[in-house]
Amino acid sequence: MKMKFKQFLSLLIVLSVQLTFAQESTLSGKVTDTGGLPVPGANIIVKGTTISAQTNFDGDFTINAKKGQILIVSFVGMKTVEISGSSSMLIKLSDASNQLETVVVVGYGTQSKKKLTDNIARVTAKDIQQIPVSNVQNALVGKLAGVQITQTNGKVDGGINIRVRGAASISAGTQPLYVLDGIPLVTTNESSNGAPTNPLLTLSPNEIESIDVLKDASSAAIYGARGANGVVLITTKRGKEGKGMFSINLSQGVSQATNKRKWLNADQYIELFTEASINGLGDAVEAEDTFDFLAQGTDWRNREVDTDWQDTAFQDGFNTDADFSVSGGDANTRYFFSGAYNNTTGIINSNALERVTARTNVSHKVSDRFTAGMNLSFSRSKIDRIQDDNSFTTPLQAVAQSPLSPDRFEDGTANPNTLYANYLLAIDNSFWKTLMRRVTGKVYGEFKIIPSLKVNSDFSYDLLSQTEDAWYGKDSPFMATDGEAYATSVNNETYIYSNYLTFDKTFGEKHDINAVAGVEFNKFNRRFQSVTSIYFPNDSFQTVDGGAEVSAGSGNETDYTFVSQFGRITYSFDDKYIFKASIRRDGSSRFGKNERFGTFPAFSAGWIISEESFLKDNTTLTFLKLKGSWGKLGNAELGNFASRQLYGSNPYNLKSGLSFSQAGNDNLTWEKSTQIDFGVEFGLINRISVEADYYKKNTNGLLFSVPLALSSGATSINQNIGEVQSSGVEFTLNTKNIESANLKWNTSLNITTNESEVVSMPNNNKDIIGAFTINRVGENISSFFLAEYAGVDPANGDALYVKNTRNADGSLDKSTTNKYAEASRVVSGNPFPTLMTGMTNTINYKGIDLSFTFQGEWGASIYNSAGKYQSVAADYFDNQTIDQLDRWQNPGDITNVPQARLYGSNGTGESTRFLDKSDFVRLRNLTIGYSLSGSAIKELGMSSVRLYATGVNLLTFTNYSGYDPEARRDDAGIGEEFYSAPPARTIALGVNINF
């Protein structure tokens, strides 16, 4: 059949049109960073549609779009761009971490970094991901100016101390307020075994998008009565428009203690204690009799036993991390699902953590004006715990045992006849298990009344449920009742209703106004129960119902409420002049009825000088901003009933009764903090950015328990008396050292100084003296207060102390004495650092990435309150640190260790002998990774595969003589070490896979 010319022409036209349409509806391109390296996994979406694509490993993409359509290109950690579609595109994404337009969370809203007049420190997901630590806070160390983060000790469940711009209180809480996706979190320590737990163990780093720390009053005043110690805003990850992404991360690590101390071995122990017995008692009989007991039938004279008790207390730790996430969305619905598993075996015998977390974040655009969403997470953390540092059965106190004592007998059973209780008996015959469950959730709706005005309504809920189960078998130390079981259950729950309006509009192209106003109601409830039973038939019964007698039980319930109104307005003129004001009015059931409500205002201003005509086109000074702020904040962490007159149950002889337990104070209220902040930010040649701030924070109305006359019926009353002041300078430097096609090198450095001083005290500025510390006007908060050790008298080996008594003219008598009672205590040191720094370097070369963070602290001291047992030249039979071999032995010897005298109390007094500087520099984290390339990755459907190795606490440079300059006792005290475990040094290998 022949085709007519007309038919042929028609077919040709149709084919041409189809070909032209096909060519115009498919666009291709490449996405790279500013250095020319490809960005795999970048999302590309056609604006206003659901059409999307994703770059492959080489950064290439193809998308069904027409020329001229707007493409939105985004990637985590990089600045999103919009570009008009063309036939062949080269799209460069810049790093968002150092961009002035980076958006930070400011509480009930967001603000661009460029126009920020507050002082807010930020880290993002990429700053904390793949750091093998069991808690989120430890991943932040060294990365935030003005924020000190210290884990109490090396236990996997150890409490965390965070101080934002120094200590702002003496007797009330000092920890910041944590807000997760707008939910103020419960952070109550509910431990019953003497050592604190960290309630934020329930969070997994893999679900976190960013952490913003509000440091100054202007930023934190929106949280009013709870913002004086700073506010930590945690934002979780959310889905983004574009192709769905699946990511998985797997890692396995090993851990050891950062440091072990040197103790006497059997030879040294026998030598030192024999000499001490002769010096102290005139012969060696006491020492040899004790050696016989400690050896338990073994031949100590021939050194049959030489136990390294420290090695029994430590163990090799292991940690396994596995997490995944699925995210994506379109123009209407966005989703993020994640799950994580962590299993950590600690570096201390029988200490371990197992945690599982899950999160769902979903938002849906119901219409052009209404969006609804839900955030929901669950966490379960199981902890095998050990006793607090002050317990004889905690593993680290085993270092006090004699090396002559066997730790176990030949049959494997623990030796019960040691100098002190053998902790291995507790390991074998008891346990303490803590189970923490947390559920956090928020449902929210956002309705646009008009394009510039929207209303948000949120309902949030946080439940922290914890159970503890302790069992002690009949062979556990100090057991007199054939076994004991103890169980507790506590529920902490809080729910929050928040409703607020947000107005955001630009007038006349130069006037920008952003305003927020709202109300909030916060209700908290705590319910606690415990029960103890004794007399068990055998050790197979390990729960309360196995005991013959319930010997103790308790239960209580408490709650509090906050009701708040808040507002904030930010005005910007011509992108140069920024003014902000905020206010919050809080009312709380915690305070006296006459002082139930407080108002917390704040003001700040900024001038972006680089937008002025005389600097706008300057290629050297690319950015310059001056800023300042003033505001008032509160500290409401005073307890729920500190203002109330209380009566307690006081039964006698099976008869009920009441007794007066606390005097009431209707005028008691929160501690008040007034803060000022002045800062400058500038950028040079688009490669260097600097931020410097000076701050001063005065906190008055400190809560103190003031003594009352005995005739009042109560011993004391809570009052707001006293004032402290913290001040310092913060400096942050970010540099882009190298930016080329194959090599990128960025550095971030932060330096912080802080001085925290007591300004006034109750009772006419009377000193408040603790066991080793003092709060005195003009001195640092909780300064060390000790007798001054003066070394050793070279003539006779006596320990010497400086008298420091007052002379008639008011000066101090600096002569020495060998009588401890004649020496007066003096201010001797500061438990808090006065200088802190952190430096992070990030290097990328082709497929290789390297990052490392150094952390340093100076100015603090640590008091080893166990020193009078472990470093006193054999005063008693506790094993001694190796330095005690340098004791005085002959007239004329020059040493700092007194003569060894058994029971002689030669140098055992609490003094600066056991006080040591804790200055240190630490390689906090080191990570090296390699991203695989090649067709095999693409054929498996993967967009990227990265192998990495990472380490934490790899190197520590310090002159501190104890276990670790960051380790502190966990049962009590400020700035003390007491058989406190050092942190873990961890090395892990892992893989990241993205589909």
- The end-to-end span amounts to 53 Å
State the helix count. Answer: 10
Give the quaternary arrangement of the chains. Answer: single chain
Uncertain residue ranges: 11-24
Mind telling me the CATH superfamily name of the largest domain? Answer: TonB-dependent receptor, beta-barrel domain
- Largest sheet, described in full? 22 strands, antiparallel, barrel
CATH class of the largest domain: Mainly Beta
**pLDDT averaged residue by residue:** 90
Radius of gyration: 32 Å
CATH fold label of the largest domain: Maltoporin, Chain A
Number of domains: 3
Which CATH-level-2 architecture of the largest domain? Beta Barrel
Number of strands: 54
Report the portion of residues in β strands. Answer: over 45%
Tell me the structural class: mainly beta
Principal-axes geometry comes out as globular
| Percent range of helical residues | under 10%
Pfam family, one: Plug
Protein name: TonB-linked outer membrane protein, SusC/RagA family
Domain TonB-dependent receptor plug: 113-231
Domain TonB-dependent receptor-like beta-barrel: 409-953
